[in-house]
Amino acid sequence: MEIWINPACSKCRSAVSLLDAEGAEYTVRRYLEDVPSEEEIREVLERLGLEPWDITRTQEAAAAELGLKDWARDDASRERWIAALAGHPKLIQRPIITADDGTAVVGRTDEAVRDALTRA
Questions:
Q1: Which of 8, 29, 32, 96 is most buried, with most CB under 10 Å away?
Q2: Terminal Cα-to-Cα distance of the chain (whole angstroms)
Q3: 95 phi and psi angles, rounded to 5 deg
Q4: Which stretches of the chain drop beneath a pLDDT of 70?
Q5: 12 is known as an active-site residue
Q6: Which residues of 61-71 are buried (b: 16+ CB within 10 A; e: fewer)?
Q7: How far, in Å, CA of 41 to CA of 86, rounded?
Q8: Contact at 8 Å (CB) between 40 and 98?
Q9: What DSSP assignment string belongs to 64-75?
Q10: Are strands 2-5 and 27-30 parallel, antiparallel or unpaired?
């Protein structure tokens, strides 16, 4: 199991605390320092069953600078979104937990983190 975190994020700290409390084995990836490649983002999206715009933090300054709110959300625009996430990792929703069964969850709630634990 791997968890993508920003240590400054309270939701990330909460998810890590819950994983620790449950005795889970996991690897921490500080994705702002160890930026995921476009291919890694595609893989996580497949595991999540989501599209790139579903995991984009649209309130970030970079989102406004890029004009993301005006970008199309369709198959033709998918790679553009993925490139934006790889180029501006602050835009990636957090935390993302990749479960051992090949799935992933966005662990913004205790319920989501516990769900990831059941998939181990």
A1: 96
A2: 7
A3: -80, 155
A4: 120
A5: no
A6: ebbeebebeeb
A7: 7
A8: no
A9: HHHTGGGS--SG
A10: parallel
